[in-house]
Write a structure and sequence with these properties.
By secondary structure, the protein is α/β, with parallel strands linked by helices. The chain has a domain of about 120 residues: 3-Layer(aba) Sandwich (Rossmann fold). It has twelve helices and eleven strands. A seven-stranded parallel sheet has the order 3-2-1-4-5-6-9, with helices on both faces. Strand 5, helix 4 and strand 6 form a beta-alpha-beta unit. Helix 2 packs parallel to helix 3, helix 7 packs across helix 11 and helix 8 packs antiparallel against helix 9. The longest helix is centred in the C-terminal third of the chain and has 16 residues. The protein is globular and about 55 Å long. It starts with 5 loop residues before the first strand and ends with a helix. The relative contact order is 0.13. The structure holds NADP nicotinamide-adenine-dinucleotide phosphate. The site of NADP nicotinamide-adenine-dinucleotide phosphate has 23 residues, from helix 1.
């Protein structure tokens, strides 16, 4: 009898990892959901910290494939983690990004040299990034920010997870780097309006000076280099909108979900529940 596949999912409490866990479990795969704090995750959970290769070595023992997130700016500390993975698993699916920044490309190169079968997922902007607007939408029905005309084709985390799940459990993905997007180009302002449609209350974009956005992001403690990169990327997306690919359909056989579907599924996170209960 063939042994059931076991997959270690790192970042299992995150936007994408949570969906990878749920998708794999539904298809009967044994999952180890890794977290630094696995207690709330239940029986499939395993403790592990990507900054502690020994903890990864323990988590990966007996595993066939790994969904790997590397949520750090540089890949300097990745080699011992890859050694730990390659000591047990055969395959790794790495969540990179469409931007393939220096740290991400370095991580990809290390993975290419690891001897593991690899697949890279390079998603463009996540639909879930718009949760950053939720407080403003709930309290005032507005989104304040620069670059309302910056356009991307936002991708639903379920679609990234669907591609990850195929690459982790089926053949034909080794050596592939998938550029993943949603199906339609939408400006930031259009995304805000679609969220308004989903919650049944108009959402207005208020264009603000770039220096205010910079100040707000720095006040959140974000490194200056990251803030600079984000603002520059948004400026670029006004003149050169993000790509639109059909990779989700090509890999999974199902079309990528629209931003409208995502907004409807997540409408409660944008609704002012206090206002609803008083009306
Ligand atoms: N947002 C976008 O538009 C976008 C686009 C392309 C690519 N990406 C990439 O997507 C990745 C983020 O994915 P996500 O949004 O699904 O994650 P997320 O929601 O930001 O959650 C972060 C995850 O990383 C885990 N984590 C953080 N530090 C860790 C550590 N030291 N050891 C082990 N796990 C650690 C956390 O697990 P615990 O706290 O439970 O340990 C958590 O599950 C990043 O690498 C980013 O570059 C994002």
């Amino acid at each position: 009898m063939r042994r059931q596949k076991t997959v270690l999912v790192t970042g299992a409490t995150g936007t994408v990892g949570r969906q990878v866990v749920s998708r794999l479990e539904h298809s009967g795969v044994q999952v180890r959901a890794m977290s630094r704090d696995p207690d709330p995750l239940g029986t499939t959970a395993i403790r592990g910290d990507l900054t502690d290769p020994e903890s990864v070595r323990a988590a990966v023992s007996g595993v066939d494939a790994v969904f790997l997130l590397w949520p750090f700016a540089t890949a300097e500390k990745l080699p011992p983690v890859l050694d730990a993975i390659a000591g047990h698993a055969r395959r790794v699916v790495y969540l990179s990004s469409a931007a393939v920044r220096a740290g991400e490309r370095h991580a990809e190169q290390l993975i290419e040299q690891s001897g593991l079968e690899w697949t890279f997922l390079r998603p463009h902007a996540f639909s879930a990034n718009t949760f950053a607007w939720a407080d403003q939408i709930r309290s005032g029905g507005v989104v304040r920010g620069p670059y309302p005309a910056a356009a991307t084709a936002p991708i639903d985390e379920h679609d990234i997870a669907a591609v990850a799940s195929s690459a982790l459990t089926s053949e034909g993905h080794t050596g592939a780097a998938y550029l993943l997007t949603g199906p339609h180009l939408l400006t930031q302002e259009q995304q805000a309006h679609i969220i308004g449609d989903a919650i049944g209350r108009p959402v207005r974009w208020i264009d603000t000076p770039i220096r205010d956005a910079r100040r707000d992001m720095l006040a959140l403690g974000w490194p200056a280099a990251v803030v600079h990169d984000i603002l520059r990327a948004q400026a670029d997306l006004v003149t050169t909108p993000g790509p639109v690919t059909d990779a989700v359909r090509e890999v999974t056989g199902a079309p990528a979900r629209t931003f409208r579907q995502w907004a409807e599924a997540n409408a409660d996170r944008f609704r002012d529940t206090a206002r609803l209960s008083s009306t």
